Amino acid sequence: MKGLFLFPPNWCCSHPYMSIPCLIPFTRKHDLKVIDLNIAYNDFIKSDYYLNYSYCKIQKKLQGHKEYVKYDMIYEFLKNESRQFDKIINNIDDFLQIDNYVFCGKYIEELKGFIEVANDTKSDYYRVKTIDELLQAINDNENNHYLHFYDYYFKDIDIRNQSVAIISLAGTQQLLSSMTLVAYLKKRNPYIKIVIGGNAFTKITNRINDNWKKIVGKLVDYISLYEGEYSLVEILDCIEHGFINQKITNAIYIYNDEIIVDKSDDRIVDIEHIVEPTFENYNLQAYYAPTVILPYYVTRGCYWKKCTFCDHDFGYSDCFRIKSIDKIVADIQSYVEKYNVEYIHFVDEAIPPGYLDRISDKFIELDLGLKWFTCIKASSQFTIDLCRKMKKAGCQFVSIGVESCSQDVLDIMNKGITIKDIRITLHNMKKANIWAHCFMINNFEGETNDNRWETFFEINKNKSVFTSIGMGNFTLSRNAKIAETILIDGIEEVSEFSNDLIYASESALDKEHANQLCHYYRDISFTSEFLSKIIFEREHLAIFMANIQGFTNSDFLKREYLNKVKYNKRFVLMKELEGKLYVYSLLNKNEYVLPKSLKPILDLFEGDLSEFIKNHMVQTIANKDDLVYFLLEELFA
What we know:
seven-stranded mixed beta sheet, alpha/beta, 25 helices
């Protein structure tokens, strides 16, 4: 059976997402063309064709507006520097130059902002919350830019000759792009069968009602639930043999005009004996990285799975599984032989420390030369010997769900860790030169101001070992264990496509102060600030860690940034128009309108104030103090 296996836009671009490569070995009897539309979309929006199209839309919207000239400069920047972006992102030597990397990040920021202005993608229109809003959005030819992309991309692909299209989502942020794709394919071929899947749907099976008939049976034929290896095969067999009325397990579909949500298949995918994920259908050089990064999983599910706030393991058949060391090594060696991979992203919820010990032993013994990164749960088992062994085996950074540094809050969360576990893990990772990124939760149910101060003092006392911090405000999900202890009846959901609730505990900080606290921790050190503001694909951190000594040192990193970026005029756009000089900073996002006569003065400034002041042109300026203030406190602030 001929068909398409599609990953939709609006996800990260550093490596392929894991879902389709895991499912390919189960669908080999069918002739399925694998397409990563996410990476194709990101290339499309920076093409001359689409930049010109977007620029025309912005011109019409902003004609006569004060920001018109700013977007004129941004358009020229995006169009002229597209090839430079590609050159840097694909060449390791260029990539590792801090100013080059910052340049690429600013290019992506401006590109996304440019597209948002052209298409109003920041409006509520693009944050659809109901099925009716979604149906309206996916057919809006004027404002839905995904339709423009699909028209461009599929112009040379015969959709009428396809029997099935399978679409795999990584998260709800891909919902609009996915359902737009569904509507587009159905319009081009009304007979094509659409199968869509992803954990986002498994999490909301309790919310599927008759209103979903507007989607299921009309646009989408089947929604695959849970891990997919079994249900997808069953769905494809039904489509291939025309078994329209056959019941299917672990799927959502229409049967006798009723919407069926079947969760009856309790078979567990045996991850020990299945073929390793397959990437032979991917152009691995197309991703935004100068070397090949591939995802791999050691486990499915979470070995702890008791955290009261979490529902991450909801779609894993409620069964934790772990591969043997021999299986892991064989799969990784296959990666190296087939794809010349250099970096492995272990995408597990958390790999147990004892298993990381054994994996590290094997990697060192076989001298694989790989670099890798993963998620862990803080534990006193992360001794200095283990951390140093992990580093020797190629570990570059770990992400840790610290959540809080108050023991009372950790106990409410049922994290199964102590403050001592956190300290030992972070201090030993620091000594071993492994970057430790710490996830934190603010406003958790039952957290008091005293608890917040406990976290504040603990982090500030040990800030050097918290290499980076990402704090978010607590979101209550109906699937989370703590929801059983909270009266949630009547609380509104975030959307029809989510089980997250619009909820705040009685002791929660208000939104303004909560956001201030999150920003404080994010910027607590230059390493933390660098990760949150400069690293635009987190996987890139591993490449820097593997190639630049001292990267976990805030002073070193800040010095590198200031020396190579702060006064670098490649981050300043200028345009002369009607006797004025328009200036836009890519670093601080501010626009300035200056006298045209100041351009040669600005061209002179390289950051050395003493040399700048001595210049004869500067000497002729009456208000030198104002000029210096502008340069230091505004333009290059």
